[in-house]
Amino acid sequence: VDGPSYSSYPEEPQTVRDGAVLPTEKSFSCTECGKSFPSKFHLNVHIRSHTGEKPHSCPEFGKGFSYKTSLYRHQRLHIGEKPYSCPECGKYFKSKLVTHQRSHTGEKPFLCPERGKCFSEKSSLSTHQKLHTGEKPYSCPKCEKCFAKKSELVPHQRSHTEEKTYFCS
């Protein structure tokens, strides 16, 4: 009786150790960013972060998600579920408890390699780095003026309308 053949799985490199066939660790690398993953499946899921592919959609709103776990987290919003509580202050969260906890600890694990400035959220670092690259991905559809941050575009767009955010008393 022949044993299992692993040659039919060329995308899963194997290491033979003590007579057992074991998968090698972090053997699949992303050609876009260089991150390594333990399986081709995990690499393919990661690649969606570069392609923008969102194969999982909310049946209620049609909003797309790259990851099934993100869809599940979103679906909890429909029922108002807030399953995560902060042991420090007792507040409840739908998601991002870890990010909230950094407000208590002051932890800022995301470092800008150019300026040495630290951020508590990865998205804040990404926004900051656009200042270094000059990237301005948010453009006004009325006048085509571009901005590095969405928070800069929104007030600019109000300048094209009658909408006023400040009132005289």
Primary descriptors:
alpha+beta; Double Stranded RNA Binding Domain; 12 strands; two-stranded antiparallel sheet; single chain; globular
Total strand segments: 12
Number of helices: 5
Judging by the overall fold, what is the CATH architecture of the domain at 84-158? 2-Layer Sandwich
Query: What is the average of the pLDDT values?
Result: 81
The CATH H-level homologous superfamily of the domain at 84-158: Classic Zinc Finger
H-E order: EEEEHEEHEEHEEHEEH
Backbone CA Rg: 23 Å
- The CATH topology of the domain at 84-158 is Double Stranded RNA Binding Domain
Percent in strands: 15-25%
Question: Span from first to last CA?
Answer: 89 Å
Helix/strand class: alpha+beta
Low-confidence runs (pLDDT<50, min 5 residues)? Answer: 1-14
**Percentage of residues in helical conformation:** 25-40%
Give the overall form.
globular
Strand order within the widest beta sheet: 1-2
* Biggest β-sheet description: 2 strands, antiparallel
User: Which CATH first-tier class of the domain at 84-158 would you pick?
Assistant: Alpha Beta
